[in-house]
Design goal:
Elements lengths: L2 H20 L4 H8 L7 E5 L1 H9 L7 H8 L1 E9 L2 H12 L5 E7 L4 E8 L5 E10 L4 E11 L1 H9 L6
Antiparallel strand pairs: 1-2, 2-6, 3-4, 4-5, 5-6
Helix pairs in contact: 3-4
Length: 165
C-alpha cells in the first residue's frame, strides 16, 4: 500500500469516527435500538424546530423562564409501551450509572418513577430522563430531554412530574 493510499485510508477512518462521535445516541435512542422491531414500543421525537415553535407560541401566563428553558432543548423523545418496559429501562439506567445519575424518585396513587440526569465534563446537565410506570393501566412512559438543562428547569420538572393526559 502506498503512502498516499494509507493516508487516505486513515483520513477516511478518522472522518467516520468523528461523525459517530458527533452523534452520540441519547438514552431513548439506545433503548429503542435495543428493542428494534418491537411494535408495542412507540417513540415520538420532537425536533429542534418544533421546540423553537413551542417557545414562540407560548400561552399568556406561563413562566417566561420555563419558556426560555424549553427553547434551549435540542430534542425531546417520548417512548410509550406496556409496563414491562419500566423495569428494562430502569435496569439499563442503573447499568450505566457512570453515565446517568439517579436524581429523584416519585410515587403517586396511580404512578411511580424516577429522574436520571447526564452531565457533561463541565458539570452542566445535558440530558434528563424521566421514566414512569402506571401499573393499573399497564403503561410505561419515558421522556428524554437533551440540550442545555438548567437547575431551575429541573426543579420545575421535579415538582410537576405527573404524566396524566
Amino acid at each position: 500500500m502506498t503512502h498516499s493510499r494509507l493516508l487516505l485510508l486513515l483520513l477516511a477512518v478518522f472522518m467516520q469516527l468523528a461523525t459517530q462521535a458527533q452523534h452520540a445516541p441519547d438514552f431513548a435512542e439506545k433503548f429503542m435500538s435495543m428493542h428494534e422491531g418491537d411494535s408495542t414500543l412507540k417513540c415520538i421525537t420532537v425536533s429542534p424546530k418544533m421546540m423553537e415553535q413551542l417557545g414562540d407560541n407560548h400561552k399568556e401566563g406561563r413562566l417566561e423562564n420555563i419558556v426560555q428553558a424549553i427553547t434551549k432543548l435540542k430534542s425531546v423523545r417520548i417512548v410509550n409501551g406496556s409496563a414491562e418496559y419500566y423495569k428494562k429501562a430502569l435496569q439499563l439506567l442503573k447499568k450505566n450509572k457512570r453515565r446517568f445519575k439517579a436524581e429523584q424518585e416519585f410515587q403517586t396513587d396511580s404512578q411511580h418513577g424516577a429522574f436520571f440526569i447526564r452531565r457533561d465534563k463541565s458539570g452542566k446537565t445535558v440530558e434528563l430522563i424521566m421514566i414512569c410506570e402506571e401499573p393499573q393501566n399497564d403503561r410505561f412512559t419515558l421522556i428524554n430531554l437533551t440540550g442545555d438543562i438548567d437547575e431551575e428547569f429541573l426543579c420545575f420538572l421535579y415538582n410537576n412530574k405527573s404524566l396524566k393526559n
